[in-house]
Amino acid sequence: MVGLAGCKNGLLWGLFLLACGLFVRDVSGIESGAAPPASKVIGAGLCKTGTESVRKALDTLGYKTYHHMLTRDAGHHGLWEKVYKTRGMCRESVQAALDAMDGDGYNASIDLPVNLLYREQLARHPDAKVILSVRDSADEWAEIYMSTVGALFAHMARPPFTFFVPWMQDWLSFLSKRTGIVHSASDMTPVAASLPKAYTEWAAEVRSTVPPKQLLEYHPRQGWPPLCDFLGVPPTECPTAPYPRDDSKDRWDRAVVWVSLATYKWPLILLVPVAVLGLITWASLRFVLGKG
């Protein structure tokens, strides 16, 4: 029974990744011979603030970065489902998810869903260094989020994807609880007016929560110097290769297109076997009646 359950969960997870289009996400970094750092790094920036570039940069500097549980640690999804179902209010569920991350040797984390637990991570690692990745403005972030992550999640919260990802509504409730992003009750799309406010208040909360000496407010275009300096990497050991770019926009665009098509066209797919069955029935009746 355990084996069958595992296969079922693996199949559902694979279908979810396929639907998201995240299976094409680039999880590579720049080759690095850096030794594993001793300090813990917590990424507290919201998604779509250059977190993919920061993840690659941290990997290059020798960190083992927990970046987006969907692609890096699918084996943890059962633990995260419990976090979603309680909207992060159950301490035991939160600690179990973070225990799994720490137990697997990750010394850095960034992006959803783990960034939403930056306070809990900081409580576990009070000396950790925290990176708040940012955009040029709240409005810029809102526009990008609305057309990528927000659009994708909204489609995933509707049939046919809810058959494969039944916890999607729980996930959006957790996201709303933590960030203040409001979702439309009718179609689960983000309410545009809530996004700039959520971004601004999130950044303000991080600034007020993290001790100033442990916080780096960082725009990826700043490149290596401020990041290396903050993490204690000597200038002579700071990478000379170009800073990694987040080139995932095309992948997000493709994912949103395919998922939206599936959302609106899936009833037509269900009609195909019905039409075939109807044709067979009609042909059979015609044959029988003809014989009669």
From TrEMBL:
The keyword Cell cycle does not apply. It comes from the Eukaryota. The chain crosses the membrane at residues 266-289. Gene3D superfamilies: P-loop containing nucleotide triphosphate hydrolases. Residues 1-29 form the signal peptide. Keywords: Membrane, Signal, Transmembrane, Transmembrane helix. The keyword Signal applies. This is Sulfotransferase domain-containing protein.
